[in-house]
Amino acid sequence: QVQLVESGGGLVQAGGSLRLSCAASGSFFSINVMGWYRQAPGNEREFVAAFTRGGSTNYADSVNGRFTISRDNAKNTVYLQMNSLKPDDTAVYYCNADYRYWGQGTLVTVSS
Predict the structure, then answer these.
(1) How far apart are CA 36 and CA 30, in angstroms?
(2) C-alpha closest to that of 6 among 74, 109, 102
(3) Which helix (H) or strand (E) holds 68?
(4) How far apart are the C-alpha atoms of 67 and 65, rounded to whole Å?
(5) How far is residue 75 CA from its own chain's centroid?
(6) Which among 49, 24, 25 is positioned nearest to 35, based on CA atoms?
(7) What span, in angstroms and rounded, lies between the C-alpha atoms of 56 and 50?
């Protein structure tokens, strides 16, 4: 079992930055893929970024070059550094482990 708790969301102006954190408890070292997803009002949940245990990363086209996912095994935590934020980035951001476990989400609001 893996439990995920996100934090770091908030209100930011367009062009600003935020860093989201996802703290994992349980069998963190057994997790192969950690990812971030987001869901805007009225939209389906969509993929944002992923980090594999082997160290490779993958990003949605919409955030590539602006967002960076990283993983700190010592802290059992995954981060999502979000720069050059746009109003279209407004959503609830969810942490995911192995496409199976989900956190409760953290709201990011980007004002224009």
Answers:
(1) 18
(2) 102
(3) strand 67-72
(4) 6
(5) 16
(6) 49
(7) 8
From CA 59, how far away is CA 36, in angstroms rounded? 9
According to the model, what pLDDT value does residue 28 have? Answer: 72
Position 74 scores a pLDDT of 86
d(CA 42, CA 7) in angstroms, rounded, equals: 23
CB 7 within 8 A of CB 94: no
Is the Cβ–Cβ distance between 78 and 22 less than 8 Å? yes
- Rounded-to-integer distance, Cα 108 and Cα 10, Å: 5
Length of the chain: 112
4 is written with which tokens?
């995920």
Span 7-22, pLDDT tens digits: 999 999 999 999 999 9
